[in-house]
Amino acid sequence: MHPNKAFRFDNDAAMLDWAVARGFAHILAATTDGPMVAHAPIVPAGDKAVRFHLARANRLVPLLDGARVILSIAGPDGYVTPNWYADPVQQVPTWNYVAVEIEGTAHAIDEDALIALLDTLAAIHEPRVIPDNVWTRAKMDDARFRAMLRAIIGFEVTIEAVRGTNKLGQNKGEADRAGTIGGLARAGNNALADLMRTI
Question: Which of 18, 52, 86, 132 would staple 175 via disulfide (CB 3.0–4.6 Å)?
Fold first, then answer.
């Protein structure tokens, strides 16, 4: 994570809330076969854990139970040119971004917990994409659901550390920030521009 304290989240709870709302993680593990990464949606499991699921065929799956992992959750990001600053001659290019790392130990979960994970995932994200017709497991044929369930496995990560960077130009003056927001918007990076407006 970036060493500048100006770019820190307020606290661990804020970082975890942001990570869960973002909802998608890169799961990194050092294994006997070398470093590996998988990608999966995450959901909360109480205050001290998160859960995710992977295809059983994923090469990381047989190495995950009991493994120490880092879940990296990245948000909007983008290149910032000095040309957007009030005095570009005195500046260098940089990159603005939001990211959270969750470190902990992964353990396989049972089928009931996996089903709860999938239900939670749908409950979090369905209202965001189609609020007037949310999908629930009740809409699915149970035999088909059970057949598909056999193709995945769930894991819970007990959280041991959370680190985050919220680098949105907090160390810049008002004119430089306004110039960067305008430049990002003109470049089509509205997600990052909108985040900068909130700081």
Answer: 86
